[in-house]
Design goal:
globular; about 10% strand; about 130 residues; three-stranded antiparallel sheet
């Protein structure tokens, strides 16, 4: 049995009020770089900064740092700094991040499957 919550009702009714916390969370997890970073970490391996930057080709150092910090603050990504010289920092998904990635990766697969078709349609009419 699925429990209905006011938040679940908001999704069904399409009623996203200005104060709805989903807006903030969606801003964080659906930003330009967060889905790519979450997907990169979804295979379960901890990755270093340079590997994440390679996988999210085009991300600037500033945006990579900002996005990882936000995902860490949200409890989705774990940052583990090892006390060695030179510094060694690895990023991995938390259990909450893993749960999100389990939903996000199929969406990204759908986008990859249909991106060419959608972009081939050209610019939106009347825009």
């Amino acid at each position: 049995m699925q429990v209905s919550t006011p938040l679940a009702s908001a999704f069904r009714d399409g009623d996203f009020t200005a104060g709805c916390p989903t807006r903030t969370v969606l801003d964080h997890v659906m930003s330009r770089w967060a889905p790519l970073l979450l997907a990169a970490l979804s295979d379960g391996d901890a990755l270093r900064w340079s590997e994440l930057r390679r996988r999210a080709e085009g991300v600037s150092e500033k945006m990579l740092a900002q996005t990882l910090r936000q995902l860490e603050d949200d409890g989705l990504v774990l940052r583990e700094a090892r006390p060695v010289v030179p510094p060694h920092v690895e990023y991995s998904l938390t259990p909450l991040g893993r749960e999100l990635a389990d939903h996000l990766v199929p969406l990204l697969g759908w986008v990859a499957d249909h991106a060419g078709e959608m972009l081939a349609r050209g610019p939106a009419r009347g825009a």
